[in-house]
Write a structure and sequence with these properties.
The structure is a homodimer of 410-residue chains.
Chain A (H helix, E strand, L loop, with lengths): L2 E7 L7 H16 L2 E7 L5 H12 L5 H24 L5 E4 L1 H4 L1 E3 L8 E4 L2 H8 L3 E5 L2 E3 L5 E3 L4 H12 L4 E6 L20 E3 H9 L7 H10 L3 E5 L7 E4 L12 E17 L4 H11 L7 E5 L4 E9 H18 L1 E16 L9 H11 L6 E5 L2 E7 L3 H11 L10
Parallel strand pairs in A: 1-2, 1-9, 2-6, 3-6, 9-11, 10-12
Antiparallel strand pairs in A: 4-5, 7-8, 11-12, 13-15, 13-16, 14-15, 16-18, 17-18
Helix pairs in contact in A: 1-3, 2-3, 6-8, 7-8, 9-10, 11-12
Chain lengths: 410, 410
């Protein structure tokens, strides 16, 4: 039985015809090792942004169905060119759009969710000895119309296909050589993490490590699909994401991560006992806006203050929805703050170990950093801080937990 | 009952976002006159060529399925942007790929032929008051894969949709303001022809008048669909193509047209009584290569010479096929000539009038032009000449038949 390997190449790995040809060689080499190969690709280089710019030159708020019709062409160009580049090497390859690949989604244009994959065509092609090239980022809804999966969509396409095909491995090729203990551009001593658990990776991805999208990791975790993240053209061994990671050296904190573009929306003077929060978060969820921490505090005897955190990307639509609801139920004031960042430490055993939170707070405090809000989960502690203090905060935490001392390979 | 109008805009009409916005206004104006509008568009500007260049940087002979996968994205970008540009004007529009428009073709990638159109989705959208924007040039085959219709494909898409929808009119917008008695770039006294018959237009299109593709005109003729060809941004009344054209002033020759890129392939020393010609033309037809005149002459007692004319575009594949067959049956020599052109006069009554051919030959002869072969049909007389003498030939014929004296409007 041949192994099935799903590979994913991002836009920066496909930004020139030269790179497309190089990738074709890599794919063929992997194929010749005796694997069945499915390759998921993004649009070439900045193609998606180029297309979006055309759209925004026409309309400040283009119709979402038409945006998906537009941007999905980027991946379609990539699959065709990559298939040609494999043919010229003397191998059989076939390009599939989301439709051919059977990637079915709900109807939410520009941020659709996967429903299922009907992989018959892919399996047939694999069994004919073909390398299958699939357009990432896109799906089709039940009206047979193109949808796109939103940020990180191609990662999600790759993982979902790997799960559906019961692949042995999903390889995510990108422009960094793995997951680091902190952003190496910020922290020169940051170390590549050789193995990381789904939980840790999911948190780190959700919190801003730009390597892979957390939706993809969450799906991989559910089906125990091993993923390796590595550099397309480099030689590093990358980072393996699996269920269990041997905790040699008693590593508690796996990495420091951050999210630069977060914004807070605060509603002051909300009447007590209204269902504001409920309605607000329902309406935000309808737009697939993910809300980070929510805080509800007494403001005075009759009213409360509600505040919540969203990504910068979701800020404008969130504010619009908030204002609509606030207008209906009467709110004294809406207050916004966009100069915030979130810094977090992540590690599978954080909740189990005592004293981790206090070490974090002390380290930040020593560095003169004020924490706006704090948010914890089983494997993560996050602090909202001023954007201007972000670099200092990451450095302080990376030092505190001695992350530069991680062993290169475990 | 509202009138149904199908409009088609070519790539040069869509080469910038500014033009896309202008076209949106034209479409909305036509819609507000009380028409149901279906718009067929080509790829923006030189997008198709840009994509083809990417492909040819990868492979000298890219797989045709992948070429169609690639180039069909050009039209998809256009339809999405044009729909957005109509939305911003406050009107409803929806973009349809060939799949949504139900444009079904055979399986011949890069030069597919239309089989039928399943226009349910379009009709539904029209009845909901939407302007429907359809990707020209593309179709889908019975494997549900994208095909393209070859040269002039968008014209064909427009006419086929107009026929299927029983449209009242098909409007072809282009960068020239109608059909002329000769190429106005060559002959400054050339006149716009206000009305022309399907037969005449089909001949002129097939022979190289770059205004519209003859496949599209042939289809319109079959269903008596009126077509108007006019300039996108100009004010000219254009040229109306219909069944009957009043022949005021006893106009016999409607126009002089030419084809620059023709090539002749000659097989010398073919054994008599072989089925070479038959097999050759069967194999060429399989590749959808259209052969112009075929000449078979005695070469010596036992052998014949067979020669035929193809467009430059079809030259290389035709030569390949010719060599394959020649190899099998034994041919003494294959001879090729690419420096040829075809000049023709076209008019519905040419066959009925005596003396037209002799006037043509005398005019060319007076201008010192040698005719290689002559070819006539009911409404056309064509001469194959040296490419270097083409300009002189067109001028001589335009003068001979006094085409600069045509009335501006009939």
């Amino acid at each position: 039985m041949k192994k099935i390997v799903v590979q994913k190449y991002g836009g920066s790995s496909l930004s020139t015809i030269g790179k497309v040809k190089k990738i074709a060689k890599k794919i063929v080499a992997r194929f010749k090792e005796g694997n069945q190969i499915v390759v998921v690709v993004s649009a070439m280089g900045n193609e998606t942004n180029r297309l979006l710019k055309l759209a925004y030159r026409i309309s400040p708020s283009p119709d979402k169905r038409e945006l998906d019709m537009l941007t999905s062409t980027g991946e379609q160009v990539s699959i065709a060119l990559l298939a040609m580049a494999i043919h010229i090497l003397g191998n059989e390859a076939i390009s599939f759009t989301a439709r051919h690949a059977g990637i079915l989604t709900d109807g939410k244009y520009t941020r659709a969710r996967l429903i299922k994959i009907d992989s018959q065509k892919i399996e047939k092609a694999l069994n004919l000895g073909k390398i299958v090239i699939v357009a990432g980022f896109q799906g089709i809804n039940h009206h047979d119309e193109v949808t796109t999966l939103g940020r990180g969509g191609s990662d999600l396409s790759a993982v979902a296909l790997a799960v559906q095909l019961k692949a042995d491995l999903c390889e995510i090729y990108t422009d960094v050589d793995g997951v680091y203990t902190a952003n190496p551009k910020l922290i020169s001593e940051a170390q590549r993490i050789p193995r990381i658990s789904y939980d840790e990776m999911s948190e780190m991805a959700a919190l801003g490590a730009q390597v892979m999208h957390h939706r993809a990791i969450d799906l991989a975790r559910k089906y125990h699909l091993p993923i390796i993240v590595k550099s397309t053209f480099g030689s590093s061994k990358g980072t393996m994401i699996t269920k269990e990671v041997p905790m040699l050296e008693n590593v508690i904190v796996r990495g420091v991560t951050y999210q630069k573009n977060v914004a807070r929306i605060t509603l002051q003077g909300v009447k007590k006992n209204t269902d504001l929060a409920c309605r607000l978060f329902e309406d935000l969820a309808k737009e697939n806006i993910v809300i980070d921490s929510i805080v509800q505090d007494l403001y005075n005897q009759d009213t409360v203050t509600v505040s919540f955190i969203v990504t910068e990307e979701d800020f404008m639509p969130s504010l619009k929805i908030t204002k609509e609801i606030a207008g209906k139920i009467g709110v004294q004031k809406i207050h916004t703050d966009c100069n915030l960042a979130k810094v977090s430490i992540v590690g599978d055993s954080i909740a189990k170990e005592s004293g981790i939170a206090s070490r974090m707070f002390r380290a930040l405090s020593r560095a003169g950093i004020h924490m706006e809000t704090i948010n914890t989960s089983r494997i993560r502690i996050s602090c909202l801080i001023k954007l201007s203090q972000l670099d200092q905060a990451v450095k302080a935490l990376h030092d505190e937990f001695e992350l530069s001392k991680i062993k290169k390979e475990i």
